[in-house]
């Protein structure tokens, strides 16, 4: 309005905007965007969509879990190994420097960790 001083208009806008932002942010944080496949919850819908696409890629992967009653498949062998260790309790051999997991001790021994200062 023309008879309202400009400083009052600015003050009204700057007070209302942060309150609205805080309410929307806290509501989104409480509800989040849950993955429809697993129990992860994301703060952004886009991040959830990208994550869910990874589930779809795993489902179409050529590497099947080696557990007899599990039909989960993966594109990458390290994803399959991580699944087998976490879900089915398989043993893994882990590099103490970079935490990469290997299914056999021989594979771990062949591993040349890029973070190691004593590479041969």
Automatic annotation (TrEMBL):
Domain C2H2-type positions: 33-60
Keyword list, A-Z: Metal-binding, Zinc, Zinc-finger
GO molecular function, one term: zinc ion binding
Coiled-coil blocks: none
Record has Zinc as a keyword: yes
This protein's name: C2H2-type domain-containing protein
Organism of this sequence: Dendrothele bispora (strain CBS 962.96)
């Amino acid at each position: 309005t023309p008879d309202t001083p400009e400083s009052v208009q600015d003050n009204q806008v700057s007070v209302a905007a942060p309150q609205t932002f805080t309410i929307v942010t806290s509501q989104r944080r409480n509800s989040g965007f849950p993955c429809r496949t697993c129990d992860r919850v994301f703060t952004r819908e886009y991040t959830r969509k990208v994550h869910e696409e990874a589930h779809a890629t795993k489902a179409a992967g050529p590497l099947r879990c080696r557990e007899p009653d599990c039909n989960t498949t993966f594109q990458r062998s390290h994803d399959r190994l991580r699944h087998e260790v976490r879900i089915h309790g398989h043993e893994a051999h882990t590099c103490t420097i970079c935490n990469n997991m290997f299914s056999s001790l021989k594979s771990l021994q062949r591993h040349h960790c890029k973070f190691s200062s004593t590479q041969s």
